[in-house]
Amino acid sequence: MKKITIQEAIKIQKDAKSKERTPQERYLKQIQFTRSIDTVKRLKKYFIGKVVEIGCELGHASLEIEKLGFEVVGVDLIDSCVKQAKEKGVNAILGSMENLPFKDKEFDTGLYSHVLEHSFDFEKAITEAKRIFKRLIIVVPINDPYNIPCHTSRIENEDIIRKSFPGKVVFEDVWYRLNWKNEKGEDTKEFIYIVDLK
Question: Counting Cβ atoms within 10 Å, is residue 87 exposed (0-12), middle (13-18) or buried (19+)?
Answer without folding.
Answer: exposed
